[in-house]
């Protein structure tokens, strides 16, 4: 009884302290109320639900840009003011110029999904982890992965032909799970030296089975209460959150069960790799082996601890697997609706293969892949149009003034070119809206048109992003460490797919929407159950 009373007392005290802190911080804050923005929505979730769980990703972003501008005042949960922006200079300032001055406020969500790895770490801890991980993502390291990407994609092509076509000329196939199996095998071997054998055996492995439909189960159809609860987690002590997460509640349980399996598999891989290393057989070129070796040569003070290694693996598994599969799925979706680009890429592959043969090479090199301008333009345009992480959130670690490249009209009609903010200001950066800005990409920014990357007319004033000035991989100290890995893998996959199949839309009136399932996921409009899928008609060539 005493302990229950103590818990109630402690809970009320913590709640009151949190409320007092919230009120004080809001009273002190520089106001952003002068900025235009949508009506505030409910006190509980404000405009957050429109961004986190819309019917279709982009519903809110595209409407807000048209109605109010590129830098707005929106409402976060519990009436909190939030700065929403798609402005190039603002994004560049926050990601590139400001180092670690803009922190990630949603770390509990990241921890639930990925563990305390690189995506989760902050400040000096992040810088240390990133420094150790960088060599594993160097160009030299990645070049060695190309044959593996190619072989994995080839295995999938052969399996598709054997199992699905069985003599038929064409078939309607949901290509999304196939691309996911390819990237699962690829991340297994390249990142961990581990064979999931997913293309051959499907989702039989423990990890693949635990991951199946995770994102849809955990992130589709979220209620306002679920969105609000996640925000409460950010404001209460971490030990309490961990206690709550152990409760067998649907979404939490799904995430916790998955992460438990991912940790077990990661530990198993580390044990096997360590045993190999102890036997003097540590020549493996996978990311984790490179990381372990890099770690061994570090000053003991800056090394990754044993507890830090496992979360890097659970992070790489998730960050490096479905991200690439989904982007490749979107590329095939767009190509199925643009047959002229399929043909141009096939011609390009043929010419590049002929040139490689002439010089005596049997396979294409990384330089060959990069010389294929049409393929690259299709990939860039797909990454622009379908940033699978459409929104990133940050919190200012100090008072600051955020510069804007697109001047904004305030509610009183004043034109401003910067926004003063206070420490603690919540900020939402719409990568999706930036990627569709006519000011950056031209008047037809809302259309999928790869020519824009071939015409040589794009000259954005503000340089942003690690690849083609896109916001898709984020940028700066927290930019995607795996962007080159992803680009190379997608090049290899798309080449194999396009050489072997022609893609066209499925029969009937199937409309694909930008589905909200954690990542931007293709879904069929009007489907009874929201699930990621991309049916396409495939003709064997
Ligand atoms: C098309 C594919 C991909 C996209 C669109 C993508 C996108 C992103 C984005 C937007 C971030 C920033 C996240 C944040 O700030 O919270 C990020 C970070 C990260 N990505 Fe990727 N990613 C892709 C592929 C990959 C691959 C293939 C790997 C690894 C093999 C990877 C590993 C990571 C890691 C470890 C981070 C954290 C970096 C840090 O905080 O230092 N990603 N990615």
From TrEMBL:
<keyword id="KW-0349">Heme</keyword>
<keyword id="KW-0503">Monooxygenase</keyword>
<dbReference type="GO" id="GO:0016705">
    <property type="term" value="F:oxidoreductase activity, acting on paired donors, with incorporation or reduction of molecular oxygen"/>
</dbReference>
<feature type="binding site" description="axial binding residue">
    <location>
        <position position="480"/>
    </location>
    <ligand>
        <name>heme</name>
    </ligand>
</feature>
<dbReference type="InterPro" id="IPR050121">
    <property type="entry name" value="Cytochrome_P450_monoxygenase"/>
</dbReference>
<keyword id="KW-0560">Oxidoreductase</keyword>
<dbReference type="Pfam" id="PF00067">
    <property type="entry name" value="p450"/>
</dbReference>
<comment type="similarity">
    <text>Belongs to the cytochrome P450 family.</text>
</comment>
<comment type="pathway">
    <text>Secondary metabolite biosynthesis.</text>
</comment>
<dbReference type="InterPro" id="IPR002401">
    <property type="entry name" value="Cyt_P450_E_grp-I"/>
</dbReference>
<keyword id="KW-0408">Iron</keyword>
<dbReference type="GO" id="GO:0005506">
    <property type="term" value="F:iron ion binding"/>
</dbReference>
<protein>
    <recommendedName>
        <fullName>Cytochrome P450</fullName>
    </recommendedName>
</protein>
<keyword id="KW-0479">Metal-binding</keyword>
<dbReference type="GO" id="GO:0020037">
    <property type="term" value="F:heme binding"/>
</dbReference>
<dbReference type="InterPro" id="IPR036396">
    <property type="entry name" value="Cyt_P450_sf"/>
</dbReference>
<dbReference type="InterPro" id="IPR017972">
    <property type="entry name" value="Cyt_P450_CS"/>
</dbReference>
<dbReference type="GO" id="GO:0004497">
    <property type="term" value="F:monooxygenase activity"/>
</dbReference>
<dbReference type="InterPro" id="IPR001128">
    <property type="entry name" value="Cyt_P450"/>
</dbReference>
